[in-house]
Amino acid sequence: GVILMHMQGDPQTMQLAPHYDDVIAELTTFFQERLQVIADLGIPPNRVVLDPGIGFGKTTEHNLTILARLDQFQKLGRPVCLGVSRKGFMGRLLDRPVERREAGSLAVAADALMRGAAQILRVHDVAGTADLVKVLTTLQSRRSLAPFGQASGER
Q1: Which residues are identified as catalytic?
Q2: What pTM, to 2 d.p., does this model score?
Q3: Which of 14, 21, 101, 120 is close enough to 9 for a disulfide, judged by CB 3.0 to 4.6 Å?
Q4: CATH fold of 2-8+15-144, please?
């Protein structure tokens, strides 16, 4: 399989002055073009996962825009992998050192999972993320088991 990750520039220059006129449109175009190249190489679409490359050639504002609109990549028909664990933008947002960014990372993961915007998470805290997924899955199953005719939020 292939994880197709977006990065503006190269590792040495990517954070010098990232610029996008429309970060979502530009990532969408990048994915569409690369998905075609991958298909032309004979790799089946069901073997490809998209990764917007949070923190790779993007400012904090770009990263937050991508996260807020992550669900827009679903129209490309491929699962989305999200890697936000301990990223620099999280440190700037929370004013925390790398070892104290896990709560923010889990919050982003929860948001993406609850919206169906990401299907795969790339993380450092595997146990904490597994707990998060278990709790979210349990709560979701309870919501879907609400008695017929009763809204899931009613008591």
Answers
A1: 87, 122
A2: 0.88
A3: 14
A4: TIM Barrel (3.20.20)
